[in-house]
């Protein structure tokens, strides 16, 4: 990552001397067009395939967003999407979800590849534009009515442009179930309004969510609680989980809104289950706690993300990759209809 930044800085120095701003902008828009065209063509192809098989209302559709630079600590989540894909299809397990849906059926799961985040940033495109490109990519997937986005992060900053796109495309707010050790609702963390510690502040400000339920919290400070109150967030901390469990394992969400979005930060899990994260925070949910919450949730889940898996912190055998992949597999079962 550092390498490409220096490459761009060198280019910028040269460009001030030799290249007109118009030429650079032209180059940038060509890269953006090419990036969106690739996702559009893949989505059309998968949409046609799913329609030709028939009888499908929703096929969960993988879209990778390999973005790590909005992390406050480590940037490893940029490398997660290929690792998660690899683990989804790992020969050590089979392609059934726990409730029996078959992942190798395109009516259940399709894939449209990754937003080429690094290539876009290498052209000097700033974060405002990058966030718009991510939103646009999600909307392109949703153009095919049967394709419902299942996002592979990336750090948590991606949830803002993704949820914004979904609520704009559906024409109204969604309810969000957010599983995380942290509330990620700082107004701006270290001066960055797109920080991975801020996406839910942007989502709530934008009116993209009606209800936001945050489950698994155990690293929350005064600002996190105050921002929660400010936006009317329902915050469930781990210290009271044994008391809240019954209710959280029997949630009903989404009545009267356009659907439900699920955002899973892998660090919602206790690090004993998922050590491959940037922020090790002991005292989290067990894997089965998370599955109970997801399996029993009564909701029309329209889209989801799995974020903050950091392959650079994973165990040698890739245990956290398998954990992230299993989360994706079970979310696929919730989304596909």
TrEMBL record:
Q: What phylogenetic lineage does the species belong to?
A: Eukaryota, Viridiplantae, Streptophyta, Embryophyta, Tracheophyta
UniProt KW keywords: Hydrolase, Metal-binding
- Protein's name in the database: Arginase
InterPro entries cross-referenced by the UniProt entry: Ureohydrolase, Ureohydrolase_dom_sf, Ureohydrolase_Mn_BS
Q: Which CDD domains match?
A: Agmatinase-like_2 (cd11593)
Q: Does the keyword Hydrolase apply?
A: yes
Q: Which family does it belong to?
A: Belongs to the arginase family. Agmatinase subfamily.
PROSITE patterns this protein is in?
ARGINASE_1 (PS01053), ARGINASE_2 (PS51409)
Tell me which Pfam families the record gives.
Answer: Arginase
Tagged with keyword Metal-binding: yes
């Amino acid at each position: 990552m550092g390498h490409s930044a220096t490459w761009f800085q060198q280019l910028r120095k040269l460009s001030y001397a030799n290249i007109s701003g118009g030429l650079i902008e032209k180059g940038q828009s060509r890269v953006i067009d090419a990036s969106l065209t690739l996702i559009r063509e893949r989505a059309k192809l998968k949409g046609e395939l799913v329609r030709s098989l028939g009888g499908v209302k929703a096929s969960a559709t993988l879209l990778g967003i390999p973005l790590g630079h909005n992390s406050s600590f480590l940037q490893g989540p940029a490398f997660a999407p290929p690792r998660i894909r690899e683990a989804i299809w790992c020969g050590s397990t089979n392609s059934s979800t726990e409730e029996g849906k078959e992942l190798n059926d395109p009516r259940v799961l399709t894939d449209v590849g990754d937003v080429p985040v690094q290539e876009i940033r290498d052209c000097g495109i700033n974060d405002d534009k990058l966030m718009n490109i991510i939103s646009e990519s999600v909307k392109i997937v949703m153009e095919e009515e049967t394709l419902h986005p299942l996002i592979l992060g990336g750090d948590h900053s991606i949830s803002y442009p993704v949820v914004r796109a979904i609520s704009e495309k559906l024409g109204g707010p969604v309810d969000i179930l957010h599983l995380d050790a942290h509330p990620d609702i700082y107004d701006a963390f270290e001066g960055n309004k797109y920080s991975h510690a801020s996406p839910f502040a942007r989502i709530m400000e934008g009116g993209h969510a009606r209800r936001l339920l945050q489950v698994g919290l155990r690293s929350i400070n005064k600002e996190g609680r105050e921002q929660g109150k400010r936006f009317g967030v329902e915050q469930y901390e781990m210290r009271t989980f044994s008391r809240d469990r019954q209710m959280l394992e029997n949630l009903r969400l989404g009545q009267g809104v356009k659907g439900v979005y699920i955002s899973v930060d892998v660090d919602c899990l206790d690090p004993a289950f998922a050590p491959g994260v940037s922020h090790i925070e002991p005292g989290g949910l067990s894997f089965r706690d998370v599955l109970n919450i997801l399996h029993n949730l009564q909701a029309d889940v329209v889209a989801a993300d799995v974020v903050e898996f950091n392959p650079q912190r994973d165990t040698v055998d890739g245990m956290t990759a398998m954990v992230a992949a299993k989360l994706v597999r079970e979310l696929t079962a919730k989304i596909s209809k």
